[in-house]
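Troubleshooting: if your tokenizer reports a length mismatch, compare against these two reference records.
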Amino acid sequence: MAFQTLLPCKVRLFLLLCLFAVGQGQSKLYKGFTKFNQVQDNKQGNLFEEQWFIQKLDHFNGADSRVWKQRYFVNDAFYKAGGPVFLMIGGEGPANPAWMQYGTWLTYAEKLGALCLLLEHRFYGKSHPTTDLSTKNLHFLSSRQALADLAHFRTVMAETRGLTNRKWVAFGGSYPGSLAAWFRLKYPHLVHASVATSAPVHATVNFPEYLEVVWRSLASENAECPVLVKKASDILVERLKDPKTYDNITKDFNLCSKLQIQTEMDSAYFLETLAGSFMDVVQYNEDNRGFEGVMGTNITIKVLCSVMGDASLGDPYARYVAVARLMMDTFSTKCLDTSFSTYIRDMTNTSWDGPAAGGGRQWVYQTCSEFGFYQTTDSPNQPFTGFPLAYQVKQCADFYNISAEQVAEAVAQTNEYYGGYDIRSSRIVFPNGSIDPWHALGITQDIAPDLPAVFIKGTAHCANMYPARGEDLPQLSLARDHIYVLLQQWMKQ
């Protein structure tokens, strides 16, 4: 996203981000251990100067002449006269210039002589179309406006740089992966091909399948692992029924303040925050993300399941606590803030300097107004309990005055506009990983010869986008090679 997290990924929307800096992975954690964390740009990223493009505020109202400055980056190191133009699409977090120096797309660029551009998404990072993040201003935040940003950027850049007759290829991962597919779908005269990695192209209000994949991904390491997680979660839920246990729970999880469970929203937020560590680790398991500056890449499914399987730590609840402590240590978190009231306060702060302005307030708005994607515990075939759809959707009303009925209608409109799983276009490749929970909303089987899927067993979110390394699974290396072959073929068409 995500989310975020993508990226996220968040109403714990781990969509966020494959290449951005909020929860990096961004639909990433907008609460929990990495709450509103900003990932620092790599020093190498400073080699690429940020540039600014004059963009329209509202592409769908010709009478509105307001403009703003959108941030972008350029890498022309591999460009050869007559070569293609690669456009990396920004997502739900700050664009990370480290991607101008690392990533599989640059390997392709070097081989094909491509010019590389990265355009930051409106309302994220430094791309501020409005003075604040009020709900009124967030009406200008949508995937449709973002696609129109891409179209206008592509048109003007082609004219000013003499690239009109070049073949443009869109790249994106997570939510930007969806944008890459939709850019080709809606503007086929402007973009020749797209690589839509880990793209959740089907919008849905309730997304219980996310946690079902989390169960299967944990079980792929050890069949007992998700069973133990479920036992721990069930124990915790049972203890929450007795306020006398709150002091011990506060100490166990090193909460920033004494646990207060006065409403179902309080309970759901607490339980979701703890579950989030498992969700995050599964989503990005083994991804080669170190160059982005993210923390915690050493914490994998194997590590979590090792802790959950360690009987010397005590019962499953004690092991669950140990996982939480491990995550806190990893992210240098002094204490865990599980206060829903604090979360509401942060998410309703409309300042660009607010604690959720890194992407949390914006991305959750997009889920309420376009996508849903709510990762609920409504399925019995997953390890957690306590954060149902009602909890997720109520946040739309609390933060933006968007009702549950409006969320459902918005999601239906999104699928009507883009086609959901039934996308009809050409020259789009859809890579997905079997470990990644987001593959449940993506294209995992070929739609047509020129709409192929690349389903990579054993890999997680956006794995094919990250730099290659010696320990990569053979099928991941083959997937990267296959995508390159497709690009080669499509460049000749």
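Reference record two:
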Amino acid sequence: MNSENFSLSEKIVSPSYIRQGSQARRGHEQLIRHLLEQGKCPEEGWSESTIELFLNELAVMDSNNFLGNCGVGEREGRVASSLVARRHYRLIHGIGRSGDIAAIQPKAAGSSLLNKLTNSVVLDILKLSGVRSVASCFVVPMATGMSLTLCFLTLRHRRPKARYIIWPRIDQKSCFKAMITAGFEPVVVENVLEGDELRTDLEAVERKIEELGAENILCVHSTTSCFAPRVPDRLEELAAVCAKYNIPHIVNNAYGVQSSKCMHLIQQGARVGRIDAFVQSLDKNFMVPVGGAIIAGFDESFIQEISKMYPGRASASPSLDVLITLLTLGASGYKKLLSERKEIYSFLAQELKNLASAHGERLLHTPHNPISLAMSLNGFQAEGDKAVTHLGSMLFTRQVSGARVIPLGKEQTISGHTFRGFMSHSETYPCPYLNAASAVGITREDVTLCIKRLDKCLKTLKKEGSRVSHFENKTRILLWEQDLPLTDI
């Protein structure tokens, strides 16, 4: 409804009523105008009616929704199912063009505008979350691992002789496979144990650079968010090393946007040294479906270079999901979620500490990890890996998701590289442990219920263990009395 249509409406319905409706419409349009003018996340969240009005306005700007459109090409935004069309708000053309994911599509002005606005709003959120000097970013419809691969492939053109990527160890398959998929050889640098924490071995990183030669190294691939007892890499020191040897630096910031500490590390690293790009997941940080990531950096030309490396058009779904979410929350709503997450982290830490003490265990001291916590499982060490892994399966069947139980000495081979002590980020971590994390969206009820069920599982395991121990002792006595070997117990 434009002003002319409202004027015509006054001939049908009382003008005072129409003017009231027109003013209500202008309220929606004013919010949309502010978004277009500023390109920032609104401070207060929008209503669903405003968001749907905005998305419908965008959709009618795409050629597949033109009245009387006659499409004779191979890609005309045709959709067989009306349910699918509604699911995507009839924004069917996706984003980008065959040569650049950030390019404008002549046939899809609305989808192109959606793409540009999403990238602008997300950039604003990255700044609000702590990386004030970030210059550019874009949403890519791939999860974190493949997005890291895209960064490495872009660097290949800048450093054609490079073969190696230096990688302080973190036991997570996708970031390792990202380097393999890009065609590079990961150089795994083991962490050093400081108290309970596993931290970056800076001396080992520098030795590897000198040993391999800086010109043969594509980049240093560091990590912020991770499972305790590993903690975020020493980003400032690594950034300084990268600047010293003129080596690119890519940061895996998978779920670090929700942590002010992780974002501060990136900001400081860029200030004192070199960080070329940092990659973060959409689903882990913004509570949207899996399938998208944000690639961001401090040099706009390099981020544009990465976006041009993406082959072909791309799905608009991740961009649409995160834009709807941020418009719903507003900047204040998102900051509130981050504040609540931090408060619940302290609550989870205290609850785990109390539970650990009640069972003769302890909460591992990992103050440099702002999201993940770890509780020792020393009491199960004598019974071997089976008791530890059994605890994990017990929790899962009792609908406690996300808790990770880490036994000692597990080996895992990934793309020809064998990791000893896999999942513990170390070949020789001193004890088995259980992980729990306070991630964005968690509630106090989640923590309370998890602790209650974990307590029951630990008590059940101890009873089972005592019965097994009693049986073994009786068996040993019988075998000893009959002068038989004890090796088969």
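Descriptive notes for reference record two:
- The two ends are 82 Å apart (CA to CA).
- Confidence is low (pLDDT under 50) at residues 468-477, 485-489.
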